[in-house]
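Write out the 3D structure for:
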Amino acid sequence: MIVWVNGPFGGGKTTTVRALLEARPDFSVFDTE
């Protein structure tokens, strides 16, 4: 499964992804920034 997190600067994308990784440590993150 691919989860694409998109939004404006300061919108909480990184915070959301960190919470997701805590819940699912088997997930990986590819940050294009």
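The mean pLDDT is 92.
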